[in-house]
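go over my protein:
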Amino acid sequence: MKILYVCAPGDENARKTAELIAKAMPGHDFLLPELPEFPLEIHSFLRERDTAFDPDVIVGSRLGGFYAMLICGPKKLLIDPVMTPHKGPHPFLRDGDERTREELRRLHDAYFSDWKDFETTGEVWGLFGTDRSELPDALKFKREFSLVKGRFMTDGFSLAPDEEQIKSAIVPAIERVFADEIVALSFSDMDESCFL
């Protein structure tokens, strides 16, 4: 299996997670590119890498999940993706960083307003931890992808998973996405109004 892993610049937790996943999946081709600094450059860079590497699965976590979502084609597993990265305080949005915020907004708005621009032909899965602070992003994922090939999963892992959580939750999720063995889960027992 060929895996393209996307983690945002400066996201050390995501990079550590990616390195642990690569270690836990020997024998697979694993590409973890260093990304440029700004969102529009990142998007162009990833489109080129996707074409050159031709991955079976694209995996991205947090802001990297947002960037992975924008790539056309193959199956995607988004791990706790930030669905509205241009809004709210996030560790990757520094005070006064209006260029980053504006470019993230442009990518977000273009993707969700005109799916055809991004050729979203691949299947998209979201894997969310059970941390309640992540639920607004999980609900947006569920809402936005309910009419396409989106699938939703939850598992008990943290935003900085350890080796055991990677082996027990994330690696099996990647393998199941590749093998088309995912069963969709939902928030049927939760009151969505609590998290919007």
